[in-house]
Write a structure and sequence with these properties.
alpha+beta; three-stranded mixed sheet; 8 helices
């Protein structure tokens, strides 16, 4: 029995529409999944997600609780407090967002209290300091440094050359998971990309490094 060209076209169009509908992941859920996947690589953090979505809209609240200095492996509580303030300052740059009908917000909790953010960095030196404090403890973070060299290679963050995966309801993604280079995911979640829009007096570059099983030097 012959198949009319119009029938074939209709079948193809239907398949395209189904694929597009399945691939249209709610951006606030994908943003939340990325944030959680990155922060879960830091054993000093406990991440909880509360979905307050209603018929009127979607609201996702991410709570990031920082453990005490002893469990975190840091030298003293002052170091932990500095990390808490850095997280509270940088995470909202990516974690507080209004995304096409859904909102995401993030808060940092330390010693049972919500940590207020500091003023945003005004210099690249301050931005690098805050980034290093926030990333300390994350198993994907290697180090941050100021080489003193002029240009974009002066202020550096070094990230392990690994992939961050998180679940997304998207049939266009293999296995229903998004795979993002760790350097890209950390640059998003810790607000490094957003810092570029603050007109600082310099730029933070992010590089990848392959580490042996014994760890990065």
């Amino acid at each position: 029995m012959p198949v009319h060209a119009s029938t074939i076209i209709n079948v193809v169009l239907a398949a395209v529409l189904v694929t597009q509908a399945a691939a249209a992941v709610a951006p606030w859920y994908e943003r939340t999944a990325e944030i959680v996947a990155v922060l879960q690589r830091d054993p000093s953090l406990q991440v909880a997600v509360k979905d307050d979505s209603t018929d009127q809209g979607s609201t996702i609240k991410i709570s990031v609780q920082l453990q005490d200095a002893g469990r975190m492996g840091l030298a003293n509580p002052a170091t932990t407090q500095a990390k808490a303030k850095a997280l509270a300052t940088l995470l909202p740059l990516y974690g507080n967002a209004d995304l096409d009908g859904g909102t995401v917000s993030v808060e940092v909790i330390y010693n049972g209290n919500t940590v207020p953010p500091k003023a945003l960095p005004k210099t690249v030196d301050d931005a690098l300091t805050q980034a290093k404090r926030a990333m300390t403890g994350n198993k994907l973070f290697v180090r941050g440094f100021d080489s003193g060299a002029p240009g974009p290679m002066g202020h550096m963050l070094v990230i392990k050359a690994k992939v961050v995966q998180y679940s997304v309801d998207d049939i266009s993604k293999l296995g229903g998971k998004a795979s993002v280079l760790a350097s890209d995911a950390l640059s998003n979640v810790y607000g490094i990309n957003a810092l570029d829009g603050l007109n600082l007096d310099g730029h933070i570059s992010v590089s990848n490094v392959v580490c042996p099983d014994t760890g990065c030097p």
